[in-house]
Specification:
The two termini are about 20 Å apart. Helix 3 crosses helix 9. By secondary structure, the chain is an all-alpha fold. The longest helix is centred in the N-terminal third of the chain and has 34 residues, at about 80-115. The chain has one domain (about 10-325): Amino acid/polyamine transporter I (Up-down Bundle). It has helices at about 10-20, 25-35, 40-65, 70-80, 80-115, 120-135, 140-160, 180-185, 185-195, 215-240, 240-245, 250-255, 270-300, 310-320, 325-335, 335-360.
């Protein structure tokens, strides 16, 4: 077997939560507020209902082939050659997603933290632990996510509490001045980033110890990430206001700049940057790991570790050309990217599920204690 590691159902859920809030936690507020304005928080409420449908759809496919990744049962459903084509499509998607996430990190560090450090240097330095994490395998990534999650949640709770004195709920008014269509429009970038990206977890379902509980934990942590993001958007709007949140590239980072307790506790935005880097680490590690794992299954390699070094170099190079600046990234995320992500997250799994039902393909699960 290409990957012999196993993760608990809790680790699966935690990794999904960390993945969902990864780069989205600091970028999503400005993106959604730019579309839905002060009603951006309503977009996330609507999205929670959408999450039920997405999880039901994906788990229906995973339950039919509980011991296989989406790469493996693509060949089972569509045949060897069409299945290989699907595998190649997902390899390119996971590599491209890795490059996008790395570029998001590079833009943040080079514009907000280390402004005189060359961005390429940041990419190289950060990819080294990512490659090492992928080399160590899924179990290590799962344990690391389990250890890091409490710190992420704790700090954001503390940040919210310290900002309570600055919250002004009047900035949420008027509610729905243009009707429900604006919050609904806000769903478009959200579906692509990060919801459709979660298709990556169909690469991990065979390695979960309790496959029968996947849907429950998938749904729980998927909705949990949506609620977490909704709270961040709500706090951003009520503290910074719609105009400043919309114009800020990294609104949560700017939000942390507002924290001042007396004259001795301020400038905590660097800590926010550190917490965000933690979530980015988990997301990028999973994207990069999935690309290598998918390659091993498509080309029948004995180990997924063979491609780690060349893929690492490809991701570093690709990250420098995916877009030219944060403004172009914003245009891409709100324009073409959701369609690109939906092709991988909805269209391909939809075809696989329909064909599997027509051909009545299904295998029995092997429960692992």
């Amino acid at each position: 077997m290409v990957e012999n590691g196993k993760i608990s159902i809790l680790q699966f859920g935690i990794m999904m939560f960390m993945f969902a809030i990864g780069s989205a936690v600091i970028l999503i507020p400005s993106i959604i507020v730019a579309v839905a304005k002060q009603d951006a928080w309503i977009t996330f409420v609507i999205a929670i209902g959408l999450d039920f449908g997405i999880v039901t759809f994906w788990t229906a496919l995973a339950k039919r082939f509980p011991n296989e990744t989406i790469i493996q049962y693509s060949e089972r459903i569509l045949g060897k050659w069409f299945g290989k084509m699907i595998g190649l499509i997902y390899i390119s998607y996971f590599l491209y997603l890795s490059a996008l996430v790395l570029r998001n990190l590079g833009d943040f560090i080079s514009t907000s933290l280390l402004v005189q450090t060359p961005q390429q240097f940041v990419h190289i330095i950060f990819m080294i632990p990512i490659m090492y994490g992928a080399y160590l395998g899924l179990e290590v990534i799962g344990r690391a996510s389990e250890i890091l999650l409490p710190w992420v949640v704790l700090f954001f709770l503390v940040m919210t509490i310290l900002l309570l004195k600055d919250i002004d709920f009047s900035k949420l008014l008027p509610i729905l001045p243009n009707g429900i269509q604006m919050p609904i429009k806000g769903l478009y970038p959200l579906i692509g980033f990060p919801k459709c990206e979660m298709i990556l977890f169909l690469m991990l379902t065979p390695f979960v110890k309790q496959p029968g509980k996947i849907k429950k934990y998938f749904l729980l942590f998927f909705i949990g990430s949506a609620v977490f993001a909704a709270l961040l958007v709500l706090v951003s709007i009520t503290v910074l206001g719609v105009d400043l949140t919309e114009r800020s590239t990294f609104s949560v980072f700017d939000l942390a700049k507002e924290i001042k307790v007396g004259s001795f506790f301020n400038r905590v935005e660097v800590l926010v940057g550190g917490i965000w880097i933690i979530t980015i680490f988990v997301k990028l590690c999973l994207c990069f790991y999935a690309a290598n794992l998918a390659t091993a299954y498509v080309f029948n390699l004995k180990s997924y570790r063979i491609t780690i070094l060349p893929y690492g170099l490809i991701v570093i190079a690709l990250s420098t050309i995916v877009f030219h600046n944060p403004a172009e990234a914003f245009w891409f995320i709100t324009g073409a990217y959701p369609l690109y992500a939906m092709f991988h997250g909805f269209f391909i799994p939809g075809v696989l599920l329909v064909v599997a039902k027509i051909r009545k393909l299904k295998i029995k699960p092997k429960e692992v204690a």
